[in-house]
Amino acid sequence: MVQLAGVGRQLMTAAMAAPFLERDEEHALAVRWKDEGDERALHILASAHMRLVIALAVRFRHYGLPIADLIQEGHVGLLEAAARFDPEREVRFSTYATWWIRASVQDYILRNWSIVRGGTSSAQKALFFNLRRLRAQLAAAGPSASRDPLGEIATNLGVARADVELMDARLSGPDISLNVPIGESDSGSADRVEFLVDDQPLPDELASSAIDAHRRADWLADALGSLSERELRVVRERRLGDETTTLESLGDRLGISKERVRQIESRALEKLRRALIQRHPQDTAQAMT
Fold first, then answer.
1. Residue 166 resides in a domain
2. Residues 107 and 135 in one domain
3. Same domain as 131, residue 167
4. Count of domains in the chain?
5. Does 106 lie in the same domain as 145?
6. Are 234 and 271 in contact (CB under 8 A)?
7. pLDDT in tens, 11-61
8. pLDDT of residue 80
9. Same domain, yes or no: 229 and 166
10. In a domain, 187, yes or no
């Protein structure tokens, strides 16, 4: 028996006191609300289906959230269903409202169960709310159960095994704050965040690298001016393009042998080296070490 307190007990008492509706009564109330905006009709319709809200909310009580909050979220889903319900369809309101109530409760759980947002897709939501149940079913099957339960769950739900492993890890333990002390010493306690390692360069290093890259690009552009037209073409196609042109292909286009292209390239690179050393002797020496 689920124990309710405070608001939850009041909601349960009000739900049990509300009368059941016959199909014709339910239809008439839905029409009055949809066509006339009759709020009293909406109140009666919603009150009569609070039993349904409570029954669905109680199914999710094992996620560690207050049952009263789940019931209130289910009530939000019930009102959403009332706003969207078409009484002219041959469907009972309870059948239609069940989906909206469940969706509202599940969304609330996903928003509040963890500080890390999860279940952003329909597949992830199905995994979140079915993983424990499926694992329990496989465990109950005994020795005949699959030796790869996570793989079987992935197949049953139509999701990737990696997604199942990630969700299983998330459900296996609570959130851990990075600001929780993990030890004490003479100098005081250290927070977990202090032990996180980031392999990425620091912002000042990134800025310095960007500045150096622009400076070297300017140096190279200046040094390229010392080359002849043919040397410049060879260097651009052999060294500065996104794709390297072969000696043979470039020789065919220039009407010379591939050996001659190699000689031109070698001479041009030497001219570039001398030009860079002459114009930026100290910086070039540091860059080449």
1. yes
2. no
3. yes
4. 3
5. no
6. no
7. 667 677 777 888 888 889 999 998 888 899 999 998 889 989 999 998 888
8. 93
9. no
10. no
Q: Is the dihedral of CA 150, 151, 152, 155 positive or negative?
A: positive
**Cα 173–111–49 angle (5° rounding)?**
115
**Amino acid (1-letter code) at residue 128:** F
Q: What is the pLDDT of residue 18?
A: 74
User: CA torsion sign, 9 to 14 to 20 to 25?
Assistant: negative
| CATH number of the domain enclosing 39 | 1.20.120.1810
Structural domain includes residue 178 = no
* The domain boundary residue, chosen from 130, 151, 171: 171
Question: What's the residue count for the chain?
Answer: 289
Positions in the chain short of pLDDT 50 = 1, 289
Which amino acid does the sequence have at 175? D
Using the structure block, give the residue that is written with the tokens 């996570």: 150
- Residues in Cβ contact with 30 at an 8 Å cutoff, skipping those fewer than 6 apart: 41, 45, 82, 85, 87, 93
Report the pLDDT value the prediction gives residue 74, as an integer from 0 to 100: 92
Cα separation, 57 vs 227, in Å, equals: 79
Q: Dihedral sign, CA of 99, 84, 47, 109?
A: positive
Q: Which residues of 26-42 are buried (b: 16+ CB within 10 A; e: fewer)?
A: bbebbebbbeeeeeebb
Residue 145: CB atoms within 10 A of its CB come to 14
Question: How far is the CA of 160 from the CAs of 125, 152, 163, in angstroms?
Answer: 14, 11, 5
| Residues 95 and 145 grouped into a single domain | no
Pair (93, 155) in one structural domain: no
With tokens 């159960």, the residue in question is 145
**pLDDT at position 1:** 44
3-state secondary structure (DSSP) of residue 203: helix
Is 71 inside a domain boundary? yes
Judged by DSSP in three states, 43 sits in helix
What residues make up the domain containing 94?
A: 7-112
Which 3 state secondary structure label does DSSP give 244? coil
